[in-house]
Amino acid sequence: MTSRDPLDIEFLAHERVQRLIDVVRFCIEEISLAFDQWDDTHVTGPGLYFAIVSGHSVRHYADEMGDNYWPVDISHEVLEDVDSFYDAASEVAMLRDGAVVISVDGVIQKQMVRFLDYTPDDLPQGEYAVEYEDWMGSRHMSAADASARPEVVTTITLSEETGRLTLFEGGRHVTTPYEEIRDEQANE
């Protein structure tokens, strides 16, 4: 994704932000792999939705998700203790709903959120147009929409139905089905 203005900071080019994204992605993959009932019908697995943001607040484009909170007593910063982050993410994946907001410095917001939909007049166009697929549910479509916002660096989801991991940037996505995550780990 290119900057909208020559003075924009391209957080995706920063080594620390890339490390942050890699750690979140790795933990989501591990949570997906730890669940062994993806093929069982009528079983819901762990589901996650992370948004890495560059602003100091998301209040203009998100609402609180009620009593859904990230357990900051377990992990309040992603890169400080990856094992604690994994433990907290595992808990949230099974017990809570909404997006977890992480700032580009790795600090995790306690309140989980629901990102607001675009109004028809505000839908991103051209380079930032949002891409949807038939398999996407509300979590994934929200993550696609949120990723097109200038303040959002990336969003990452784990499907509670299939174990699929999807990374969204600028309204576009790259998805990795559970089978590919499993096969990649087996080949390492």
Automatic annotation (TrEMBL):
- InterPro entries recorded: DNA_integrity_DisA_N_sf, DNA_integrity_scan_DisA_N
Q: Which residues belong to any copy of the DAC domain?
A: 5-180
- What protein name does the entry list? DAC domain-containing protein
* Native species: Haloprofundus marisrubri
Write the lineage as a comma-separated list.
Archaea, Methanobacteriati, Methanobacteriota, Stenosarchaea group, Halobacteria
